[in-house]
From TrEMBL:
InterPro entries: Glyco_trans_1, Glyco_trans_4-like_N
One GO molecular-function entry: glycosyltransferase activity
Stated name of the protein: Glycosyl transferase family 1
Source domain of life: Bacteria
Glycosyl transferase family domain residues: 191-346
Assigned keywords, A-Z: Transferase
């Protein structure tokens, strides 16, 4: 092994958001040749993401996140190292053999939406967030919005460093091979014309209001379906209202499609084939799907809240009020009916997404940790 020993808690590598973050930062760090990287997590999962590389070493552990077991186990598993990085706030509480400790806090969702959690989980989140800031030598986050949110919930004078996420334009781009596009559409049983939603199914994603807005479009004879990436059974944390809407409205239910799991290689075609990406989230620490959609030539409507204006800029997205169903419906209608708006959003989006790269983010990260 060469260079500084850099240990990463990579147990969340298959998580849709944090997993992408871990993958791109670890690969970027490895490409510098400065670090000997040790990954903690499932060897099977990590090997499926990272190629055999002399810069990587995997310590195979199977310890659930947010568990008492991780607090008992991790301090003894983390090897002696120069840097230990927790890419989420569930850091080891006991001392570890690291010269420097880093943490990334992506957002304060578990506090802001604490009412969707049980009292124990809510208390755990509040305590861990404060402890993560206190025990870490450097605290990172992914947007200025998240930075302000952390300061709002944690009384600290510590400098919190905001470094944006990136986007891999080699993965997310327009595919001009009509045969491949057809095959993916056929595999996923995609409707001819559709509005797309990409994201998890937590309450902050605002799917209930999106469905109600879509219902308004149906009543106006818009011949579109709504495609939701994920499983119908995945709804959690008080989204029973979604089930009620779909169960009690046969017309609405017939026009909503859940894709199930989608391979990352197929996702760009879902974007480029969509009429519009609807992203009416109430709360986002960053929000990758809008940038991914922009890179694939898909116009975007997003909420005018949290980090989304910061990420999408002034011209690359059409902004809506996520708390007003009419605003969401009007935004969708504007993009679907007005070709000039649609073309302008696609053009501005293609420029905006190029401002975010993982290599740029990793470079800023390295400068911060090497000070």
């Amino acid at each position: 092994m060469v260079g500084k020993v850099f240990v990463v808690d990579a147990r969340m590598i298959l998580n849709s958001g944090i997993g992408i973050y871990i993958e791109n930062f670890v690969k970027g760090l490895a490409n510098t040749g400065k670090y000997s990287i040790v990954l903690l997590g499932s060897e099977k999962e990590l090997s499926s993401v990272f190629d055999n590389n002399h810069y990587y070493k995997i310590i195979d552990i199977d310890v659930p996140i947010y568990s008492i077991l991780e607090q008992l186990y991790l301090p003894f598993v983390v090897p002696k190292c120069d840097i230990f990085w927790s890419p989420h706030y569930n850091i080891p509480l006991l001392p570890i053999r690291a010269k420097k400790r880093l943490v990334t806090i992506h957002d304060t969702y578990h506090i802001t939406f604490g009412n969707t959690l049980g009292p124990f989980k809510r208390l755990y989140a509040k305590l861990m967030l404060k402890i993560a800031v206190a025990l870490s030598d450097i605290v990172f986050t992914v947007s200025e919005f998240s930075r302000s949110e952390i300061y709002r919930h944690v009384n600290t004078k510590k400098n919190i460093i905001s470094i944006y996420n990136g986007i891999d334009l080699n993965k997310f781009s327009i595919n001009n091979n009509s045969h491949i596009v057809y095959k993916v559409r056929e595999k996923l049983s995609l409707p001819h014309k559709y509005i797309l939603f990409v994201g998890n199914v937590k309450p902050n994603k605002n799917i209930v209001r999106l469905l109600l807005a879509f219902k308004k479009l149906i009543s106006k004879d818009f011949n579109y379906c709504l495609v939701i990436v994920g499983k119908k059974e995945g709804f959690i944390n008080g989204d029973e209202e979604v089930f009620d809407l779909l169960k009690n409205d046969e017309i609405l239910s017939s026009r909503v499609t859940f894709t199930g799991y989608v391979d990352i290689m197929d996702l760009p075609i879902l974007y480029q084939s969509a009429a519009v990406l609807a992203f009416p989230s109430i709360y986002e620490g960053f929000g990758l799907p809008p940038l991914e959609a922009m890179a694939c030539g898909c116009p975007v409507i997003v909420s005018s809240t949290s980090s989304l204006p910061e990420v999408c800029g002034e011209k690359a997205a059409l902004y809506i009020n996520p708390l007003e169903v009419d605003s969401i419906a009007d935004g969708l209608q504007s993009v679907l009916l007005n070709e000039n708006i649609r073309k302008q959003l696609i053009l501005e989006g293609s420029l905006r997404c190029k401002e975010f790269s993982w290599s740029k983010s990793v470079s800023k990260f390295i400068v911060s940790i090497e000070r």
